[in-house]
Amino acid sequence: MNTTDLATYNFAYLDEQTKRMIRRAILKAIAIPGYQVPFASREMPMPYGWGTGGVQVTAAILGPDDVLKVIDQGADDTTNAVSIRAFFQKVANVAVTTKTREATIIQTRHRIPEEKLTAGQTLVYQVPIPEPLRFLEPRETETRKMHALEEYGLMHVKLYEDIAKNGHIATTYAYPVKVEGRYVMDPSPTPKFDNPKMHRSEALQLFGAGREKRIYAVPPYTDVVSLDFEDHPFEIQTFDKPCALCGAKNVYLDEVVLDDRGGRMFVCSDTDHCEDRCANGHRGHLAYNKEAAE
Amino acid sequence: MSLDTLAFAGGFQKPVFEAQAVFRTLMDCMARPGTIGDIAATVTPPRPLTPAAGAVALTLCDHDTSIWLTPALAASALPGWLAFNAGAAIADERQNARFAFIEKGAMLPNFCLFAQGTQEYPDRSTTLVVEIESFEGGRPLALTGPGIRTEEGIAPVGLPDMFPQFWAENRQKFPRGVDLILVAGDRVLCLPRTTIISVKEA
Ligand SMILES: [Zn+2]
């Protein structure tokens, strides 16, 4: 993105009227957990696929005392995360960090940090498709009606078809949840591994979809339950081995190819979590080969 | 100071940062009902509206949000102040208001008289900013619901006796219904429509 012309813009890039509009939407979203509040999404100096919804939410809430962390697939150093972090350093002169526990605002794509979030923190999700019913019903007027009438039978039918076909629910990303027993919500394309972290989280969770012009929220201590069936209860992904670098168990792992002979290893997707564990002396079975792997 | 000059004075001194700070306090309080936030902004709206309620108005209201005022506020210099400092217009009907301001001591209308939103668009409802005397010393109320780990307690002074009943009716309409921003002095407490209020035995 082009950051050379940004110096003349307002604090956090957005004009005050846009911030007010987004702030009003955020308050309504918090008051109606899981409900998608329409908002007048603005053009941002980056393409839609870059998380403009999350960027607008962050820009509307961010203040000079905040410490911002940006992750993409669990990593702070991908192009998307680096660009968004640089954008906010430029337009808001905000302090940034890669450490989960130091951040007051964490903007994310695809992951929830492994470390438990706390009451002072706000997690801002970048959402491509906010409507969990969209693949069942393309018309917005109809999906609105389904949410209004709490008509979620079709969603259960779709999940059950999965079971009939595969013997289990095949959906592993953007696995639908029900919020506070009322609205079915898309948790954004996080792995279903992260769904339990949303349930009664101490942190405030805000979701921004730029292209689709929707903001929604999960307040702290709010029930977030993954849809399932009595005979097929919801299960998260499990991994056979711990992280090859830090030895962490019960975390989400990414596969890394080591060589062209089929060698590979599984490592923490949350890079800050992995580095923190390594710094504290935890070792996985390939820990000393990290440089060789890279 | 005449009424005319009053309308043009008393906005935020640093609009960008003060509005951000007030909003974050409101966001935290709306996300954690029962939490009391401080509003340290420097606005001076015409009486009888208090500075904290005025700061909420300038943080959230503009030409996209019509505002309902009580008869006393409507008769004060406030409409001109809101028009000049926020560009906001006054709503004739409670049903059409995005925000409503009720000063301390004024009669609190039943919440069902304000915009409730629709079942498809429950966000199209009124947010009421209500000034009260205090959050402590009154009848103890227990708060539960989203944003609250177990239970929060408040004891507001300055809400009508009927308040718990008004609120229960509001809660029953979920997802429709109004949200409340209570202001006492320079402190603020939010009650989103999800909060369940029960009267505690004293
Ligand atoms: Zn690791």
UniProtKB/TrEMBL annotation, chain A:
EC class: lyase
InterPro entries: PhnJ
The UniProt record lists the keyword DNA-binding: no
Catalytic activity of the protein: alpha-D-ribose 1-methylphosphonate 5-phosphate + AH2 + S-adenosyl-L-methionine = alpha-D-ribose 1,2-cyclic phosphate 5-phosphate + methane + 5'-deoxyadenosine + L-methionine + A + H(+)
Biological process per Gene Ontology, one example term: organic phosphonate catabolic process
EC number: 4.7.1.1
Keywords: 4Fe-4S, Iron, Iron-sulfur, Lyase, Metal-binding, S-adenosyl-L-methionine
Keyword Secreted included in the entry's annotation: no
Single annotated GO MF: metal ion binding
Superkingdom, natural source: Bacteria
Role description: Catalyzes the breakage of the C-P bond in alpha-D-ribose 1-methylphosphonate 5-phosphate (PRPn) forming alpha-D-ribose.
Homology family: Belongs to the PhnJ family.
Protein name: Alpha-D-ribose 1-methylphosphonate 5-phosphate C-P lyase
Lineage: Bacteria, Pseudomonadati, Pseudomonadota, Alphaproteobacteria, Hyphomicrobiales
UniProtKB/TrEMBL annotation, chain B:
Classification via InterPro entries: PhnH-like_sp (IPR038058), Phosphonate_metab_PhnH (IPR008772)
One MF annotation (Gene Ontology) recorded for this entry: lyase activity
Classification via Gene3D superfamilies: Bacterial phosphonate metabolism protein PhnH
GO BP: organic phosphonate metabolic process
Coiled-coil regions, chain positions: none
Xref: Pfam families: PhnH (PF05845)
Domain of life: Bacteria
UniProt keyword annotations, A-Z: Lyase
UniProt protein name: Phosphonate C-P lyase system protein PhnH
Organism in which the protein naturally occurs: Shinella kummerowiae
